[in-house]
Design a protein that fits this description.
The structure is a homodimer. Chain A is mainly α and about 220 residues long. In chain A, about 85% of the residues lie in helices and about 0% in strands. The first copy, chain A, contains six helices and no strands. In chain A, helix 1 packs antiparallel against helix 2, helix 1 packs antiparallel against helix 4 and helix 3 packs antiparallel against helix 6. The longest helix of chain A has about 35 residues. Chain A starts with a helix and ends in a 14-residue tail after the last helix.
Chain lengths: ~220, ~220
């Protein structure tokens, strides 16, 4: 039987390992799309099974800790938050996988389209993801609140990017397919930001015991 | 202090209430997109806050049950599954909200585009959602397995729909914007199917204690 303190430490370390893989997935898949780097895309596709298997390990560990130690209050909230964050991280891995597939399709395309705004959106999203995980590991509510306020910025960058890409599709029908791939990259980045926001909300819940979801005072999410 | 049996019953009832709202959201938002029904779209947008507030109630109840009664084995798995399904249902509410917004945009568009295949995809997705929730409430693993096998059919219907819509965009640049809205509807339907699949996986986990995620024998998901 695992000791409770050791179990919590293991849980934290596994979430850190998973979030490193997820962050690397975001960085490399965006690099693949922007710089047409085929090997970076393949690397992201290849890493996905590892993310999936850590997800299963984390769920199993969290469940064992709940069953064997019946934690209360902050420790209980920590474990419930870990379960939720685990789900978010796994889906973030899927989103990088999607971006890597769009990158492959962009690399194969004969027509080209400018990767406008994608690096700027990606930079902001990466910093949100990093902050949300640091906030969890450190129990840092200020970092978590920074993540909530960044979400709106990503949405407006993405909207601007959309308008440009759609205009290019209307001008040149040869660019329709690569432009759709580019829209998919922007959309998947926005969804990554949404997951970082979910994680930040879970951090506030576990540290402060308050539920900020659907609360317009702190930073709106739908 | 709530009794454990009563608490489980409340949890089940709240999840049923939430899933009814989610199902109605899918039906009405797709109806709005296919039949250009503005009032159906508005109805979906208006119902969303109710879904959000039930999400908070369910999380609070599940956490109280964990803290006060320290359940084990199947009861513990039921509550953990309820927490996960709750998250899926809330995001499914968001996806119907997105479809209702695409419907509004399709209604406002001057150009038109055929809503090819959307009713067929929506019908399949609705039945997956219904089956996944029934599987949870009844603890019915056969129903859960049916959901897992339907997911691939949705993916291939969506791919076919995509090809047709993209071809229409390449032919007629006036149709680019409504076609993008239609693609968004198809994509959101596919994501709804993914969430139904998540719910079915959680049912198998809670009933049988086995984790079928990322297990290629039973029905693949990424």
């Amino acid at each position: 039987v695992i000791k409770f303190g050791e179990g919590l430490e293991q849980l934290r370390n596994k979430l850190l390992e998973m979030s490193s893989l997820v962050e690397m997935g975001i960085v490399r898949s965006v690099h693949a799309a922007v710089h047409k780097d085929r090997s970076a895309a393949e690397e992201v596709l290849k890493n996905e099974p590892r993310i999936n298997s850590i997800e299963l390990e984390i769920d199993r560990l969290a469940l064992d800790l709940l069953a064997l130690h019946q934690p209360m209050a902050r420790n209980l909230r920590f474990i419930v938050a870990a379960l939720k964050i685990n789900t978010d991280l796994e889906r973030m891995g899927d989103l990088s996988f999607n971006i890597a597939q769009s990158a492959q399709s962009l690399i194969d395309a004969t027509a080209t389209t400018a990767t406008v705004d994608i690096p700027a959106i990606a930079g902001l999203v990466q910093s949100m993801v990093r902050k949300s995980i640091d906030a969890f590991v450190e129990g840092n509510v200020d970092l978590a609140r920074e993540v909530l306020t960044s979400d709106a910025a990503v949405d407006s960058l993405r909207t601007a990017c959309y308008q440009k890409v759609i205009a290019s599709m209307e001008k040149d029908k040869a660019s329709v397919r690569p432009a759709l791939d580019l829209l998919a990259v922007a959309r998947n980045l926005e969804r990554l930001a949404d997951h970082a926001t979910n994680i930040a909300e879970d951090v506030l819940f576990y540290v402060e015991g308050i539920d900020v979801r659907h609360n317009s005072e702190i930073g709106e999410r739908r």
